[in-house]
Structure formats: structure tokens, C-alpha cells
Specification:
The chain is of the alpha/beta class and 128 residues long. 27% of the residues lie in helices and 18% in strands. The chain is built from three helices and six strands, in the order E-E-H-E-E-E-H-E-H. The strands form two sheets. A four-stranded parallel sheet has the order 4-6-3-5. It comes from Phytophthora kernoviae 00238/432.
Amino acid sequence: MRPNHLHRSATGLVSAKAQSRILTGAVEYVPVARVSNLGQTIDRLKEEGVWVVGTDVAAQESVFGNGVFTGPVALVIGNENKGMGRLIREKCDVLIKLPMQGQINSLNASVAAGVVMYEVLRSRQAQD
């Protein structure tokens, strides 16, 4: 059960290594926090009642209609070549996938993040 006292807000978390390559332009609209240890940050978020949702092409759960976006969530999007590392994947409360058809089994990380964030927004608007 997730606590409902946490606000529904958006903050981007990026590793120190990835900061220069991602979120170009988005920093004007979404606060971004640079973290040096993603694993410790995930642990802290979980202590605060935030569900950590990771994307993985091998996940069983679909991003759509799964009910995990009702409370505070942190999204973890792996890189385009290797996805998430094993330790980060294990720290996630749930792994979800974007359903794909044909020969392509994944999207560009920024596109995948956009699709997942839109589903978070859509799910929350449907609740209200």
C-alpha cells in the first residue's frame, strides 16, 4: 500500500554521467536533480513511500492499465543499449514494458520515457 500524502509532482533524476546527454530543453519545465548514486537515491525514495517503476523489454507487466501509477512513482528508464543494470532492476518495485510488434522490441530511451510519462498523466486524469 502506498501513502497518499505525497504530492504528485515531476522531478527528473539523472546520473552524473548522463546529465550532459539528456533532458535538453526539458529542464525549463521539469526540475532535474543530479544524483551520484542512483541505487541509494532509489532506496531513499522507497523509504519516502515512492514506488519505483522500471522499464524492461523482458517485463511481464504492460505500461498500460496496470494500476501502478496511482500514487507517487519514480520512473527508471534504462539506456538504449543495455537497459538498466541488474542491481537497479532489482531495486525496482515493478518492471513494465511497452508492448511492441514486429521486429523492433524497444524504443529510443527518450521516446520510451515520454510514452510512460504520458501514461502516468493519462492514468491520473482518469482517476480524478
